[in-house]
Amino acid sequence: MTREHARWKEHALVELSSAGHRQGRARLAIIELLAAQSCAVTALDIEAELRGGEHRVGLATVYRTLELLAELKLVGRLDTGQGIARYEPLLPSGEHHHHLVCDRCGRVIPFDDADLEATMERLARRVRFEVAEHDVVLRGACGSCRSEARPGRKAH
Questions:
Q1: Cα(110)–Cα(48) distance, integer angstroms
Q2: What domains can you pick out in the chain, each with its CATH number?
């Protein structure tokens, strides 16, 4: 867990308490798991990971906790298509990454790009728009899926 993710964990617990929500073992387990991730995970991923551990947490509890954390702006929701959503911490520092999503296999690849961030800042200044948050998701085919494409078929 990075220092920034550890700070997020503490921030999330304080925000939950400030909003009048109990911490609870299930919520704590979900928050700790999220803080240890390097990218977005699904509710099913969380439930599967916690199923084998010391704290068994049901899928309904995972979904309720993720929705609560999203309402409190503690996690971001990434829709990856096919009805699948992934969640990741919204770090207090604003540090973040963006995502490439393979429409064929569902793989999610995080990326950072300083030039893209600078372009979005220039655009916001030019159109006099205050950006509260942003999300960049590029969809297409990952390298593995592109190389598996049959000859003569155009990769999308």
A1: 22
A2: 1-91 (1.10.10.10), 97-156 (3.30.1490.190)
